[in-house]
Amino acid sequence: MDITTFGAFTTARLGIYAAQKALNVTGNNIANINTTGYTRQAVDQVSLRVGATNHYASANGGVTGSGVLVTGMSQFRDPYLDIRYRNENSSVGAMDTKLGGLEELSNILDEVGKGSEGNEGEGVLAAQFQDLRDQLAKLTGDQSTEDEFLTLARSSAVSLVKLMNNYAQRLGEVGKNQANGLQKDVSSVNDILKNIQTLNENIQKSEIYGDSALELRDQRNLKLDELSQYIKIDVTYEPVSVGAGKTVDKLVIKTSDDNPITLLDGDYAGQLSLKANDLRKNPAYNPDAVPADTDDPYLDADGNPTADANAAAKLPYALTLSELKNRNGAALAGSEDYQFSDTELYGSLQASRELLTETGEFTTADMAKMDADATTKRGIPYYQNALDSLARKFASVLNAANTGYMYNSAGNYIKTDGTEITDIHGDPIHKVEILTSALKTELDGAGGVPLGGVLFSNSTNGDDTSGITAANISISKSWSTDASVLQNSFQALEGKSTVGSSDNRNILHILAQFDGKQDYKPGDMVTDAADGATKFFSGSFEEMFTNIEETLATDTKSTTTLLDNYSVSTTALDSDRDSVSGVDLNDEAMNMMQYQKSYSAACRLMTTLDEVLDKLINGTGVTGR
Amino acid sequence: MNMSDFRDYLAFLRDLGATLDEITEVEQKKAEFVQTDDLNGLNECMKREQALSLTMRSCDQKRDAMLQMLGLQGVHLRELLNYAPAEYREETKKTVEQLCRQYALYRGAFEVARDTLECNLHQVEKILQAADPDAGAQTGYQEASPQLPSRMRTDFRA
What we know:
- The structure holds two protein chains of two kinds.
- By secondary structure, chain A is an alpha+beta fold.
- Chain A has three domains: 7-76 and 588-618, no CATH class; 102-175 and 379-558, no CATH class; 190-368, no CATH class.
- Chain A has helices spanning 7-31, 79-109, 124-137, 143-208, 214-230, 348-357, 365-370, 380-401, 437-445, 477-481, 505-515, 541-581, 585-618, and strands spanning 41-48, 67-75, 233-243, 246-255, 262-265, 268-269, 272-279, 298-299, 305-306, 314-321, 338-339, 403-405, 450-452, 456-457, 474-475, 518-520, 537-539.
- Chain A has a four-stranded antiparallel β-sheet. A three-stranded antiparallel β-sheet of chain A has the order 7-10-11, with helices on one face.
- The mean pLDDT of chain A is 89.
- Chain B is an all-alpha fold.
- Chain B has four helices and no strands.
- In chain B, α1 runs antiparallel to α2 (39-70).
């Protein structure tokens, strides 16, 4: 025998110990069957062989092992599936956040079927537009009902502008909620990074002492899964020497991009900060450099460095990663603050940013330079601008239709005495559709008779029409105090200098404006829009609102489809991961039986060895005694 | 630029979008069949995908020819609006945006189908590796001890 006489007892003892350990691990697996993030464990064991082969070893003896050694515990995990899962998870996070935001917008703007009775497909705003038309149509020039209908028309217009105000206010609230949500998400990401940093420290300490800290690794994996929803990440493990020939794995998290940015490096973690309005920083600039950095601190919209803050590109809801620090506050060498560019991130953080910043057709030239797709990305500001655009167009068209000077049956402007106003050549000035300020001045100077007035203004306190938006559109002060500001006609009675009370030509003209096609251009709302002069829609007021609804519906539909795709894939990947890492009762039941038998067999081996040795000691060479 | 040619090009882009929709549907089905281990369904999808790929290829050639006719060789879809005649700008914008959206949906469905397939192939690979008796790198597998070199064996003649 190449083991000592009593060495076989060690073999049996090690067998018992290994089986016991395996039963413990099986029990731990079963106990954690419902623990979130728990990864199935297994005992690592190797066959023990004592001593080395030497020159005088017998070639005929055969070499047998000396039992089994438990070298540690390991987890059943497939890194491939983890990587895939986390990649898909960032897509789910992005689409889920986007869809959440779009659904909030839909609650406000998608009003199909919420309108008046009898017309199921009609929306609230569309119904109110129709109501105003109906009230205006009642102004037929009949003097017995004129005053009543003038008041009703004004009331209807008040309801319409209040609806627009309400929509704008609610859109603003969605924006505020989204901004708060983004701030919370940033805090969550920071908490996760801190948690992983602490876990990394503890895992490293455990590893140094020979404990693989599997439960801590489970916690860390859960945190990594959570983080992957917010930001698309790449996770790598690098072996690091801790002295005495020992190495431990260091976890590094980077953003998954062409320009990967390290978020966490072992014990060192960065923290994100959010700034609602920031200037685009030059990554090459180091403010702490000694002597002072010769690079410029900012980048303009074209990506060129500049020292002029006024020339720097604006970066709304900018995310900046701090330098990586350990828990004692010491910074990682070479690490510095980093501001993410407009399109550098992917995941729910970026989806939130896009909801808060993307303006679609209203994108400024500077923003379009930073993101070539910006004009097709639409977030809350797009819908705010589109609604503002509708309110402004509505106000300007109706104000223009209700403002003018008296003219005669020939269509020429006249004075209070009924005589025609002439230009410098002595020719009569013919009426125009839209009065220019120059013509107004000329007519005022020549004694023209101004009629009508502004119907809609930017507040109820005056008649100022500048900067009208959906949030501030109001009935002008003039109209609110005098219902008859709504001008029935600008044409004087034949041979007189007064307008006929039963003449409703201008009311019909105003009604015609509701059906007229209006051109909506980004430049009407945003002076430095990239494509300011190109109309993005042409249609009536109601059609414009329907277009806003359709744009939202299309975006919601495609986002829902993408989310469905990614969700199904993520769920399938999670199931795949579970099939590898999850505890399976059948497997564990088999393990239990297997290790229980191993345990029994090892015990039986000990009994057998005892019997064999008893024979050897007490029953050998005793013949004849 | 010939207006009717440009109108035809916009119509072509809409047709291309319809083809993309079809491929997107095939990709979604493909992922579904992979997840449910339906090999026959997957096979059918592959055939349809191949046919649609050929259609796409001919579309690509047609697109090149049409762009050449319009004098817009090398113009990216995103830039088409800059070259569109004024009366077609709104339609061009809508068509381009719709096509980009359809392409994004196709990319999403394609990535999901590809990932699902790759994950399944990864599993198949793992199973094959586990079943292959020649694979020496398996956990727990111990190679037979090599025979001791002659100099390390006891020389019985001694």
